[in-house]
Amino acid sequence: MRKPCSLMPRRALLQAGLGGLSLTGLLRARAAAQAADRESPSLGGLAPLRSCIFLFYYGGPSHIDTYDLKPCAPAEIRGEFQPIATSVPGLNICEHLPTMARVMHHVALVRSLHHGNRLHDSASIETLTGRLPPQGDQELFAPMAQVFPSFGGALSWVRRGRGLPLPHAALPHVFHNVVDVPCQGGGFLGPSFDPFTIRVDPQTRSYTAELLQSPEGVDIDRGAQRRELLDAVDRGLDLLPRAQAARATYQRAYALLDSPAVRAALAIDREDPKLRDRYGFDSAPASVGEGGGGGNGAELGLARQMRGQNLLLARRLVEAGVPFINVYDFKQQGQNWDAHFKCFNQHKRFLLPIADQSLSALIEDLESRGLLDSTLVVAVGEFGRTPRINRDGGRDHWPDCYTAVLAGGGVKGGFIHGASDRFGAYPVSDPVTPADLAATIYWRFGVDHRAEIHDAVGRPFPLAAGEPIRSLFL
Hints:
The protein is of the alpha/beta class. It contains 14 helices and 17 strands. The strands form five sheets. A nine-stranded mixed sheet has the order 7-6-5-8-1-9-12-4-13. A two-stranded antiparallel sheet has the order 2-3. Strand 2 and strand 3 (92-94) form a beta hairpin. Helix 12 runs parallel beside helix 13 (343-368).
């Protein structure tokens, strides 16, 4: 009989009060926490993942116009795009994905994803945590406290004893006036398991991270003196829960400052210019005037140009040993995949060219460096688009059936899991939920997806509520 794994953080135990815990309870809690680090025995001969790059297409790409075309459907459903052959006989994708067509022998498609959230934020929460949003299906017009942990946050907690300087990174963070995609952090596991956030400077086409920057006037020697003083103070406050939490944050920052690999990974200008060109710079005009969002002028236009470079940086972070990397293709405001208006023009001119170029470049680059088998790439939006084209020539939100793209990490190249009906409206075989995708990611890392995590008041939740899609790999 499998023993439940309690992932209740030490801080929560302290806050609960030592007087309420017996020695037996403490020993049980310690044993359960240690059990959380055990590897799953059910990988079927596959090696556990080294890294995962989770590429999130905010806004909702049209599955019918990318990886699940319906050429035999009526015109008001099939749309304008034609299918093209790929490197896998019998597997066709959109004509505006020509470089992805060349690497489909490394790719598996899940064409039966579905859930019930029809609004962006709630759908994003379920996609990025594998959980139903506690607040229901609604938009979050202001930042709200995150409840469940993101994939990277949960993995960081499970592997917290391994001394990784950078277990989880998220990029790009751009402007203060743009609301971040929700649910990137540690949720109820605590802020210590939030991602290392990387900012992009679109003017210089470079990346920075606040945690790696020393305050003005603080050199290496002065920084070391501050660290010694802080350690001395911490030792005097060791029994205070808040001091314990702060110490974990400081230790994480020190580990990053001491990691030359992380600093080097951000120096993207060291890459061969030809490789940077292979990943591509988005040359779309700064203000397209069509599709989703209002836009933030030339600045957002410049930030968009780094979409391809974001994936190149993700590959560099894999080389630096980062286990989980979130890449957000678009943020909540500005032009994005939410193409309610003239979606075909929006896709062929603006959305698909750089997405096609950069994702195929990432797959080929990982493969050429011997990293593809140990790195799982997941590319997905929060939902798909309506099968029927609306009166504005666009497609609206459709969570009832859409497609995820997976590459590397041991996936069976050219494999298709699940199928949609003849209109791309609903799954007709092997339906998959975001919870199943979450379980698949944890399972491939060698982590028991059924292990329990506990929120701040001790309520248990399985790490993932779904089941791994083993047929993609075995």
